[in-house]
Design goal:
By secondary structure, this protein is of the alpha/beta class. It folds into 3 domains: 82 residues, 2-Layer Sandwich (Alpha-Beta Plaits); 75 residues, Alpha-Beta Plaits (2-Layer Sandwich); 161 residues, HAD superfamily/HAD-like (Rossmann fold, 3-Layer(aba) Sandwich), CATH 3.40.50.1000. A hairpin with a 4-residue loop joins strand 6 and strand 7. The N and C termini lie far apart (77 Å).
Length: 440
């Protein structure tokens, strides 16, 4: 009979052998001379970027027989910054020789290099890791200074910065560690409001990469304006209907009752008005780019609306949307009756639709993104793994996990770690030109 397992020993996972903690990991113990305590060299190269710089440096390091532990490289306006963390040779004379060889190689390609001796690898970045997305149009240095200052005040550190877009907004992604996510979110939300920028804080985990379904409101989100107000213009009661719409979106009156009141005022309007309204609909800037990009990545797309299926069905066909849920206007003898067929798609109905769409796709609601702007979107924003308030009413902005206040709908893709450069490259490969979204 075998002895019971020692709980202090590493346990195999997924049928493979047990592995010791990686170098520098919390809890890893290293005797003198062990890899976790090994001497290392940090090489930092700067200068005008050109082909072959990285290859040249790695060639010198290869001849020295050292191991690469980490690499970071960035190019800004043609200037290269390359960082290489490598193991150090054992003998001091070999370190000096490597330093000389690296310096000669860097000089040969017009670069400056700094070689710094040290011990070990990077510090662990495992605790409190979040992505902080900052979006501005423009992004002022003062705003970014205050945002990064709040991160420092929270005791967190910025480990990496990436630019996600430079137009029509400037969007950057800060990789932050050591943060209390909720405390940081509250602090940055207040600062973002003062600075007039958008800030989103998301956990740096696999959930961000597991999103597979986006469920979106239609009126004043996917499209500009409210369809019922466009229909009301044909009935001559536009101002009256608009007032009821605003009250409903602010949550001041029951949505279902307000909808029935507004629809009743459309009695007698010719059904052809729906054709005229659809022809005049303007998508939100960046809508087509957002849908095309996310569907290219395998996302399924759904729209849910307190508006009308006679419009959403056409939008679905036009944009290649997978699912749609909306209210159906009753039409008799070619005219609107002022009534709705079936149950109303209201605040609860939108959340129910989201759950049903997720079940049909076969994913948990944690893998769903919801986007909306009004009070009747709150339930679905709360149910989804990521709820985004898009140019929303104040109460919705405060309740949502993330708020976007620029008018460009494709800004949402930057929150998912997708850069505009990636979008344009994919479009170019498909023979398309990515249009620059224009607000208006």
């Amino acid at each position: 009979m075998s002895a019971p397992a020692d709980p202090s020993q590493p346990r195999p996972t997924d049928g493979g052998p047990a592995h010791p903690a990686p170098h520098g990991s919390p809890g890893a113990a290293f005797p003198a001379g062990a890899p976790g305590a090994e001497r290392t060299l940090l090489l930092t190269l700067t200068g005008k970027d050109r082909p072959g710089v990285t290859t040249s440096m790695l060639g010198v390091l290869a001849q020295a027989g050292v191991d690469v532990l980490d690499v970071e490289q960035i190019v800004l306006r043609g200037r290269l910054v390359l960082g290489l963390l490598v193991t150090a040779p054992d003998a001091p004379a070999e370190v000096d020789r490597l330093r000389d060889e690296v310096t000669r190689a860097a000089t040969a390609v017009g670069m400056q290099v700094e070689v710094e001796q040290g011990t070990g690898d990077n510090h662990s970045r495992g605790a409190g890791r979040v992505h902080v997305s900052v979006i501005g149009a423009p992004l002022r240095a003062e705003a970014l200074a205050e945002i990064t200052g709040r991160i420092a005040d929270a005791g967190a550190n910025i480990d990496r910065i990436e630019r996600m877009a430079r137009y029509p907004v400037t969007a950057i992604d800060l990789h932050v560690s050591g943060a209390d996510p909720e405390r940081l979110r509250l602090s940055l939300a207040a600062e973002a409001a003062r600075q007039g920028v958008d800030v989103a804080v998301q956990p740096a985990n696999l959930l961000r990469r597991s999103m597979r379904l986006i469920v979106m409101d239609v009126d004043s989100t996917l499209i500009q304006g409210e369809v019922i107000e466009m229909l009301a213009a044909h009935a001559g009661c536009e101002d009256e209907v608009a007032a009821v719409t605003e009250a409903a979106m602010r949550g001041e009156i029951d949505f279902e009752e307000s909808l029935r009141q507004r629809v009743a005022r459309l009695e007698g309007v010719e059904a052809t008005a729906l054709d005229e309204v659809y022809a005049g609909i303007r998508l939100a800037p960046g809508a087509r780019t957002m849908v095309r990009t996310l569907k290219r990545l395998g996302y399924r797309f759904a729209i849910v609306s307190g508006g009308f299926s006679q419009i959403t069905d056409r939008l679905s066909a036009d944009l290649g949307i997978d699912f749609a849920r909306a209210n159906e206007l009753e039409i008799v003898d070619g005219r609107l009756t002022g009534r709705i067929v079936g149950p109303v798609v209201d605040r609860a109905g939108k959340a129910t639709a989201l759950r049903q769409f997720a079940a049909e796709v076969g994913i948990p609601v944690e893998s769903v993104i919801a986007v909306g702007d009004g009070a009747n979107d709150l339930d679905m924003l709360g149910v989804a793994g990521l709820g985004i308030a898009f140019n929303a009413k104040p109460a919705v902005r405060e309740a949502a996990e993330v708020a976007v206040n620029v008018p460009y709908l494709d800004t949402i893709i930057y929150l998912l770690g997708i850069s505009r450069e990636d979008v344009e490259a994919a479009d170019a490969a498909a023979g398309l030109v990515t249009p620059a979204p224009v607000a208006g």
